[in-house]
Amino acid sequence: MGIGREVVFGDALPVAERYAAFLETAGVERGLIGPRETDRLWERHLINCAVVADVIPPDARVVDVGSGAGLPGIVLAIVRPDLRITLLEPLLRRTTFLTECIEMLDLRNVDVRRGRAEDMVGEITVDVATARAVAPLKRLVTWALPLLRPGGELLALKGERAAVELDEAETVLKRFGVQSTELLQVGRGMVDSPTTLVRVVAGRGEVVGRRQRAPRRAKGSRKRSS
């Protein structure tokens, strides 16, 4: 895994190592990372999140919904200093942890906001929303899509049920008038199991309240890639 770390993080590896050490100590002590996760922290968590950076456009504004311990938000900030990232988290103990992380790592492209995504509509508007282990896709899209600019993208890190969750979310995706949905796998050759993403491209309708009102002609399209 040493070679994998160097390939993925490059010159940012020392910062990633400080973050990993903080997760292994304070993260475990405060209940943000399970003690059994420390032995597989790099492959299962850090590298798994870092490879997502490959599909985020340059200089994007990003919100990490339900950031928790900063996965993937802090990892993306480490490998992509061009991104402007907001870590959105409703729980105080987690926002305190996140604030300590970005100060310790001197991540100047990150800010922390305490609150729920559904309460941030109109306050946060971004190009990309990320989420990992937050909620099933059919619920996640109702929180994340209203935070996106028209044509923005939700990148949801999912596991083996990604395709099933995408099917289950079909009705709500149509309601939001999304442009397209796609299954992606990133990190081939860098991790034993590539990271599975569901990418949802927001429609170009007007965001109203907690929903997105799409033009009448807009229809959700779906495609698959592996």
- State the helix count: 8
Q: What is the string of helix and strand elements?
A: HHHEHEHEEHEHHEEEEE
What structural category characterises the helix and strand content?
alpha/beta
The overall number of domains is 1
- The percent range for helix content is 25-40%
Could you say which overall geometry the principal axes of the C-alpha atoms support? Answer: globular
What does this molecule look like?
The protein contains 8 helices and 10 strands. It is of the alpha/beta class and 226 residues long. The protein has one domain: Rossmann fold. The protein has an 8-stranded mixed beta sheet with strand order 3-2-1-4-5-7-6-10, with helices on both faces. The chain has a two-stranded antiparallel sheet with strand order 8-9. Helix 5 links the parallel strand 2 and strand 3. 42% of the residues are buried. The C terminus is likely disordered.
Keywords:
8-stranded mixed sheet; alpha/beta; 8 helices; globular; single chain; 226 residues; Rossmann fold; 10 strands; two-stranded antiparallel sheet; disordered C terminus; 25% strand
Helix and strand layout, with pairings?
Layout: H1 2-9, H2 13-29, H3 41-50, E1 61-65, H4 73-79, E2 84-89, H5 92-105, E3 110-114, E4 126-132, H6 137-144, E5 148-158, H7 162-168, H8 170-175, E6 180-186, E7 195-201, E8 206-208, E9 211-213, E10 221-222
Parallel strand pairs: 1-2, 1-4, 2-3, 4-5, 6-10
Antiparallel strand pairs: 5-7, 6-7, 8-9
